[in-house]
Write the structure tokens for this entry.
Amino acid sequence: MGAISFLKKTGRVLAAPFRLIMCVASFLRAILVIALFAFIVSVALFFFSDGFRAKVTQWFGTDTHAEMPAIPETPEPIPLVEIPDISGMERELEKDVRVQTRMLAIERKELADESRIISMAKKVLGSHSPGDVITIGGREYSYEQVSNDLKIRERRCNGLRESIKERERRLSLLKGGDDQ
């Protein structure tokens, strides 16, 4: 009896992993069937879609490609090269010059306004000391606010100067290209 009870016990012990293995195997089998079905559907869609079918019938449906000689007997005519519309390009160039000139005038005016404000702010800061309250146009500002605003405006002026230089360079290139 001892041997039979031992086999029963070991059989029960081995049954749990065996059931787990069978469960995993059936799961993998289901995934394999789904993947195979998806592959077959994708291949069918690829081969039987209208675009692919049209290309296949175009290529294999007619034998004209097989009848064509490797080297054509008569050369194909060379297509004429279209000459671009020079007057349209000149109008675009003139338009670009006008826009660049207008933008340059606007940036110069902004630079003049900012420079005027900076000079007034420097005068105001020169007559006050840190920690003072400064009244400008009926509004009160601290010395630090005016000082920070001055620094921001000076950076903006530097940026405007660089932008003006770049725009003048572009404008001279546009006008220089007009002479050629």
Summary: The helical segments are 2-48, 50-60, 64-67, 86-126, 143-179. The mean pLDDT is 80. Strands lie at 133-136, 139-142. Residues 2-60 form one domain.
